[in-house]
Amino acid sequence: MPKKRVVLTFPPSLVSQPVTYHLVKDYDLMVNILRGVVTPNEESGLVVELSGAKHALEGGMKYLSETGIHVQPLGQDIKWHEDKCTHCTACIPACPTQALTVDRESMEVSFEKDKCIACELCIQICPYRALEIQF
Length: 135
Ligand code: SF4
Ligand code: SF4
Hints:
Blueprint: E1 3-10, H1 19-25, E2 30-37, E3 44-51, H2 54-67, E4 70-73, E5 77-80, E6 100-102, E7 109-111, H3 121-125, E8 131-134
Antiparallel strand pairs: 1-3, 1-4, 2-3, 5-8, 6-7
């Protein structure tokens, strides 16, 4: 099923709009909220993964733009450099989505890119620069 990861920025006047409800109900999309900052009276943001048929994704994107919500593709990617990783596990507790995990038997760390929401928490923690932001 096609997926899109996007950053939605809401102007203050739209913060209380049931946007995700409309995406689900009217456009038959699955909405997975990956990250969100909602501050009353200020611009707010959501990082979401939208899944659905191609025409549903196009319809949902059009709806968001017409509503006045700024839509940007999730622009940055995290790259894990396996050759630099010492498997120290320092990053494991910080990762909110279990994109970084450790096999408890072998104590080997692995990275699942599909689960990563690019929150950058691991970047600040890794002492060996094994994790890098790519734009
Ligand atoms: S950026 Fe790092 S901490 Fe954040 S989800 Fe991705 S791997 Fe986990
Ligand atoms: S903190 Fe860095 S070196 Fe340590 S396990 Fe995570 S990616 Fe590997």
